[in-house]
Amino acid sequence: MEEQVDAGRTKTIGVSNFNVGQIDRIVKSARIKPACLQVELHVYLQQRDLVKYCQQNGIVVVAYSPLGSPGYNKFTANFGIASKKLPDMLHDAVIKAIAEKHKKSNAQVMLRYLLQKKYCRYTKKRNSVQTQRKHRRIRLYSRC
Ligand SMILES: NC(=O)c1ccc[n+]([C@@H]2O[C@H](COP(=O)([O-])OP(=O)(O)OC[C@H]3O[C@@H](n4cnc5c(N)ncnc54)[C@H](OP(=O)(O)O)[C@@H]3O)[C@@H](O)[C@H]2O)c1
Predict the structure, then answer these.
(1) Does 3.20.20.100 match the CATH number of domain 2-141?
(2) pLDDT tens digit string along 12-25?
(3) CA–CA distances in Å: residue 3 to residues 17, 22, 29, 33, 110
(4) Where is the NADP-dependent oxidoreductase domain (predicted)?
(5) Which ligand 1 atom sits closest to the C-alpha of 68?
């Protein structure tokens, strides 16, 4: 990857799914430090030690599955993969109470949590329902 930067084919290097030990090994041995680390990160999986390490070393944290992958089983069913039991974070009672208090959706509360922590978050959208959701996501900081 460093050769790709040297050749001008990419500006920065990003890595994914590394734990603290793995990213530390890269930081200590690489000539060009990774610009970002993409990991699963949301209200139920806060990865505090990993996030602290990245912030201390100037590595941007990119949160994937910020809503807890509610579409995971539907997606994998298309490929005949057995479903997994996943926690239903989008309907968590505490998140719902916070959302009602601030007149926001549960998803907006979950995304706002990541924004307030200054993580980039990486969610998905596809159709018109999703476009409406996207607009609601953009209003994460508004009070109305
Ligand atoms: N690096 C890695 O190893 C890795 C691993 C996993 C995922 N990722 C990447 O991270 C990205 C996000 O992953 P993810 O799909 O697990 O993320 P996610 O954002 O937690 O889940 C996306 C699901 O949430 C639903 N959704 C979106 N907005 C919603 C809302 N406002 N209310 C209710 N449901 C909502 C979507 O449904 P609809 O489709 O109906 O909108 C979709 O099924 C993906 O592009 C994926 O490729 C990377």
Answers:
(1) yes
(2) 999 999 999 999 99
(3) 22, 20, 15, 13, 38
(4) 1-117
(5) 20
Can you tell me which residue has the tokens 């993969």?
Answer: 81
Instruction: Locate the domains of the chain by residue range.
Output: 2-141
Parallel/antiparallel/unpaired status of strands 36-40 and 60-64: parallel
**For residue 65, how far is its CA from the centre of ligand 1 (angstroms)?**
5
- The model carries a pTM of 0.86
Q: DSSP letters of 82-93?
A: PP-----GGG-H
| pLDDT tens sequence across 22-62 | 999 999 999 999 999 999 999 999 999 999 999 999 999 99
